[in-house]
Write a structure and sequence with these properties.
The chain has a single domain, classed as Rossmann fold (3-Layer(aba) Sandwich). The protein has seven helices and nine strands, in the order H-H-E-E-H-E-H-E-H-E-E-H-E-E-E-H. Strands 5-4-3-6-7-8-9 form a seven-stranded mixed beta sheet. The chain starts with a helix and ends with a helix.
Length: about 220
């Protein structure tokens, strides 16, 4: 059994993520292509890894959980906030026809874009900027995935750019920045947001208008 298959069976399937489409998408994306060369021997281990700029590539299990949470059939478009390495982006692109991804750090965005081009993934649209403002020209989105922890639900973004009956997944800090976080699946029903607790998680802070200020985030990360 190779490292990728072991990761899927031991870290993901064994912990409850068993949706066939999600597992197949993960099989199609080589995680080692999204980490720095010196960390590629750790690419399929059960932990996040640094990717530069004080950011990380998420733990494989958490990527699988978030992907499964937004998967309900029929989605044609998804907005991802926090491109990072592009690993989560690539998996979403295997499942949803149009992926729109925003990253506030140009260095990370350009690196992710290069990797996805090398992997011949061509249904992703990239933007540098404040992800909490969304991407109004392409809204509404059937799905929204936020890969950084917000101080509370970004209600303006979700109410303004998530389709009716759409689904979002977002980590929210339960206390001060850098503290414990909860992953929520959010549904927009009759113009209201309904949220479901998916359990604890750990993400870097979401920076932006509906997130934290960059100074607060730098003090919390300790990276």
């Amino acid at each position: 059994m190779d490292s990728l298959e072991r990761m899927i069976q031991e870290q993901i399937e064994a912990r409850g993520v068993r949706t066939p489409a999600v597992l197949e998408a993960i099989r199609k994306v080589p995680r080692d292509r999204f980490v720095p060369p010196e960390l590629r021997t750790e690419a399929y281990e059960d932990w996040p890894l640094p990717i530069g700029c004080g950011q990380t590539i998420s733990q494989p299990y958490m990527v699988a959980v978030m992907t499964e949470a937004v998967l309900p059939t029929g989605a044609r478009s998804i907005l991802e906030i926090g491109t990072g390495s592009g690993y989560q982006t690539a998996i979403l692109a295997k499942l949803i026809p149009q992926v729109y991804t925003i990253e506030r750090l140009p260095e990370l965005l350009h690196g992710a874009q290069r990797t996805l081009i090398e992997l011949e993934i061509n249904n992703v649209h990239f933007k540098t900027g404040d992800g909490t403002l969304g991407w109004q020209t392409h809204a509404p989105f059937d799905r929204i995935l936020i890969a950084a922890a917000a101080p509370g639900l970004p209600r303006k973004l979700l109410l303004g750019q998530l389709s009716e009956d759409g689904v979002a997944v977002v980590p929210v800090s339960d206390d001060a920045v850098g503290g414990w976080q909860t992953l929520y699946r959010v549904r927009k029903v009759n113009g209201e947001l309904q949220r479901e607790d998916l359990g604890g998680c750990r993400f870097v802070p979401l920076i932006g208008e509906e997130g934290y200020q960059s100074g607060d985030a730098r003090r919390s990360e300790g990276r």
